[in-house]
Amino acid sequence: MNKKITVILTDPQYLIRLGLKYLIAENEQIQVVAEAITPQDLTKKVFDYQPNVVIMDYYNSPIFSKADIQYILDTNPKTYVLIISSDEDRDSIFEVLRMGVNGFLTKHCDKDEIIGAIYATAKGEKFICNSILNLVLEKQLCDASKATKRDCAPSKLTKREIEIIELITQGLSTKEMAKLLNISHHTIYTHRKNILKKLRINSASELILYAIKTGIVET
Amino acid sequence: MNKKITVILTDPQYLIRLGLKYLIAENEQIQVVAEAITPQDLTKKVFDYQPNVVIMDYYNSPIFSKADIQYILDTNPKTYVLIISSDEDRDSIFEVLRMGVNGFLTKHCDKDEIIGAIYATAKGEKFICNSILNLVLEKQLCDASKATKRDCAPSKLTKREIEIIELITQGLSTKEMAKLLNISHHTIYTHRKNILKKLRINSASELILYAIKTGIVET
DNA sequence: TGTATTATTTAGACTTATTCTAAATAAAAA
DNA sequence: TTTTTATTTAGAATAAGTCTAAATAATACA
Fold this sequence. Notes:
The structure is a homodimer of 219-residue chains.
Chain A: E1 5-9, H1 14-25, E2 30-35, H2 39-49, E3 53-58, H3 66-75, E4 80-85, H4 90-99, E5 103-106, H5 111-122, E6 127-128, H6 130-138, H7 159-169, H8 174-181, H9 185-199, H10 204-213
Parallel strand pairs in A: 1-2, 1-3, 3-4, 4-5, 5-6
Chain B binds a DNA duplex (30 and 30 nucleotides) through helix 7 and helix 9.
């Protein structure tokens, strides 16, 4: 009757994976069916195993990007994502929660909270650990108009804009970019202006930091 | 004749402790004799058990202060400290290394590296994992606060130049920097030119990446 | 299908940022 | 003290970036 809850682990920290594995091994209702290291690896294994839960880290410089998480959620309706975050950085928490993940823990959570979160996530319920919950309550996800606007995050960047960000972080000058893309240097400026506006930032430095944080570029 | 290596664990993250415990349990030569949560707890247990190795986290807001580490090292000559750092702590790496800890890992290290580090640390040898080692080698900077010079390579960059880098990575414009430092904007340009020349790079982007890599600035 | 929306592209006039050359002054080391 | 290194600066020339405003291309929508 009660089928086991199947789980895929993706945390890049070996010790965390090991700890989780033993923790889960103590519970007969939950079974780790695979571990994944790369996004490609993960999407393949999610497809193969159709797990109930993917347990995933979320660092400042995530190995698994938001797009990866989104893709998994979109293509596997029965698979839910449980984030175990290493930090309590507010901004990334809200970003992740908006993506539609079901569980959110920190690595300071104890055994009961972790097991509880796995059960809840597998059922498609939300589970957010206390320390995170406090943060969430402090600053409501969307302050005022939640009914119509489900989009209080900074506007999404277009493909071209992300391309420009990549080139910027590679240190290319505006002219070089224009030449490379065979477009006017004015276009580059326009894109950049829109990027800074969308991200509500003011400088190339912040842009690069953003790119690193969101995993657009590798450090 | 081969006595077991005795270890005390102090990491506040439950999963990390659990992972370490199971990892160590697989190795007959190493034995966890205690776990400690608070500094008082730790100093008492170190005194009681006289372990070969104390495995300790080091976060940005450490539960165990530098003074705690120093105290343990000073009062227990046969006890060595192995730091397992979360990788966000780049700035503090150098601080910790100067304190005289013997081992330094990140939580991304694998089993072999961890076991190897415990062995090395227990013998009083140095063990620094590869990712940290690279950082150490890359960073040719002494911090401004009169660090002992033998501990880090002589700085290629001057104090002022590092100051400029910090401001650049904070996203300040040249004019803002000039105003802040009460110097001509030309001076800023000169510094920047020299910085780029010294680091053999060509753009602000690369400079920011450099600053992030070497821990001048946090991501 | 046509229409609205969004993304991508561009120019010209204008402003600001940066480089170059070259050197003076200050601080530290030999 | 002398020498070296660090920090500072200016003026002229050049390059980079901004602003306004809009055209075109691609996509979603009904």
